[in-house]
């Protein structure tokens, strides 16, 4: 599986959950994302996936379990070698542990993973996520959402401490642009994964492709945006991709 995407997948659902609800005055606390990077098995498709989703919801109701919000993301651009991303959002690491244990002991849930396994072959991971910028308005007015994401490594001589200055620059520059009033930007670090994973992930939430393209053009046509781009590129070397996603389980939130 594409190495960039198998690590990037651990970020995206939290983007949509927090991006739709957050306000500029108060950044949300870090959440935990349980992610599945998946390829459909032969003869299976999104209809089969949604049938498995329906089975999950029914079995959880029978077990008296309240599910976490869940999202499915499809790749728009970036040439990944996976079909879809399934993402469960947990309030924190303890909430993930409780959710996992509830499902493990509930007889009604014992066949859920088997049902999904018949539809797709998946790789799962966990990550933390934090908000970097909040324009003050909901990022997604009409789902599905549109995501631009970057998986980055530090350039020679750059350090984690350099991110503080970079993110201050990001906030100042984006905060000065009217186009970014309904924009959310997040960074993430992994909990599980291989040792050579990227150092940091950044991902932004947009209402649609038009919002993304106009926002990107506005940012990089401004003098401050050009300076920000130089600052970003002096510290980080990144791969990027675009995704489209929608919520498939409402959960308690």
Please tag this protein with its features.
alpha+beta; 38% helix; Alpha-Beta Plaits; 8 strands; 8 helices; 253 residues; single chain
Tell me the span between the first and last alpha carbons.
Answer: 32 Å
The residue fraction in helices comes out at 25-40%
Content of β-strand: 25-35%
Number of domains: 1
Largest sheet: 8 strands, antiparallel, barrel
CATH topology: Alpha-Beta Plaits
Q: Quick one: CATH class?
A: Alpha Beta
Major beta sheet, strand line-up: 1-3-2-8-5-7-6-4
Give the topology, please.
Layout: H1 3-8, H2 12-21, E1 31-40, H3 46-63, E2 70-77, E3 84-90, H4 93-105, H5 112-119, E4 120-134, E5 145-154, H6 162-175, E6 184-190, E7 200-206, H7 209-221, H8 223-235, E8 236-249
Antiparallel strand pairs: 1-3, 1-4, 2-3, 2-8, 4-6, 5-7, 5-8, 6-7
